[in-house]
Give the backbone structure.
Amino acid sequence: MLYKQTGFPEEGEIVLCKVTKIFPNSVFVELTEYNKPGMIHISEISPGRIRNLRDYVVVNKQIVCKILKIDREKGHIDLSLRRVNSHQRKEKLDEIKQELKAESLVKNLAKKLKQPVDKLYDEITDKVFKEYSHLFLCFKDVASDEVNLEKLGLDQNLNKELTNAILDKFKPEKIIIKGEIKLETYSSEGIEKIKKTLLKIEKISPTINLFYLGGGKFKLTIEDIDYKPAEKNLKKIQSILEQFKDKLSISNFERDKND
């Protein structure tokens, strides 16, 4: 992993570690992101009585730990394995996975540009890390068109090559909300009323699509890169459907159960 932090971590921080040595009452590790050694006492491996530490940890295997105490003068770092819950572990491993994906992109680009990997990585991170803690966070913003690498200070040609690579590998996956709208009215201006309602719905966002199914039924799909705006648009649609209702008209929306 190319990603490295300078200095010491903070107490309470969740970190990735590699087991280096196992003793009867303690485990020694290397903090992957900080290149610093740390120690886990047997009492911080797992709750309850432990007969053999090797039943819980393996040399050269990676584990996710929590920083308990740091002695900067002596360079001692005490960690805990048992105080990391499943959510924290998953979140940390996902973070590492995404950062490795970003690093893989840089390695492939270095090969394409016939440059040393370390040199290209340093050139990119020298600018990116002034604004972001991790490469993948920046790359996701580039893929979502929220940031321009050239504005961060990257060379124009490198910006073009890197942006193209990011758009290929970090393109956000679309989420889709589907459902069926039913409109019925006995009003003398019923057809016009339905048309106006459907037009209002389509004007909410270009991410919304309507397909006529027949019999006053319409298939609704909302495609977006995030559930929050998609759900917000769905609420607007439901509000418009409520406005359609009166003594002569009814409306209904049934969301697909698979969403």
Summary: The chain has six helices and nine strands.
